[in-house]
Amino acid sequence: MARKTKEDAEHTHTALLDAAEQVFYEHGVAQTTLNDIAIAAGMTRGAIYWHFKDKTALLQALFDRAMLPMEALLTELSSNLVADPLGTMRQIMVKALTTLAQSERQQKVNTILLHRCENTGDAAGAISREQQHREECFCQVGEILGTAVQQGQLPADTDINAAAQTLHAFMVGTIHEWLQDTQRYCLLKQAPGMVDMIMAGLKACPPRVLKAATENASVTLSA
Q1: What is the pLDDT of residues 38-85, one digit of tens each?
Q2: What is the pTM of this model?
Q3: Which CATH superfamily is domain 1-52 in?
Q4: Angle subtended at Cα 113 by Cα 30 and Cα 72, rounded to the nearest 5 degrees
Q5: What is the third-level CATH fold of 55-208?
Q6: Closest Cα to residue 199, out of 109, 102, 84?
Q7: For the chain, domain boundaries
Q8: d(CA 100, CA 206)
Q9: Across 73-77, 110-114, 201-205, least confident range
Q10: How many helices (H) and strands (E) does the chain have?
């Protein structure tokens, strides 16, 4: 009996997230109430409050569910980091874009985050946490590029922060723009070539630390 109750609770939890995903996607976060989600799920508002403290918690659970596969990917690919850091970086970027192109859930949740979610009210807390997660990913990219410098794949004077900002801007910009019109081009087919173009530019002409900044850093270290 207890097992059935647990299974029922998990089923209800999933059904509520599925309903929230669809309603947020269609109407936006600000225009959606918990009652709207309950109706879409065929449940009462009490069922929502049993599983989620408020709309912020529901929205965060929605983001977490969609982002878990990408976190697993980062963990999996990190094992090849030392041997080929730039190759690993390419794999991560290509996989992120092709996963988005193939996953309706990824498309809906990223659309909610980028196009249906005002950074106010109920959404502010969830967006703040997602921004923190994005900063963590940015730091990971910086670490990968730092390893690429150590392995000789990039020059010693590569401006790692500028390079990471460029890769980050490419990914966020591509996702943001493609989600506005997914029929404009086939992201699944084009993603590898797009990433290769960015990576080729990074290898051929990486941003460099300004000489004056390097000299100042050397003076500081000497002192």
Answers
A1: 999 999 999 999 999 999 899 999 988 887 655 666 666 666 677 899
A2: 0.82
A3: Homeodomain-like (1.10.10.60)
A4: 140
A5: Tetracycline Repressor; domain 2 (1.10.357)
A6: 84
A7: 1-52, 55-208
A8: 28
A9: 73-77
A10: 10, 0
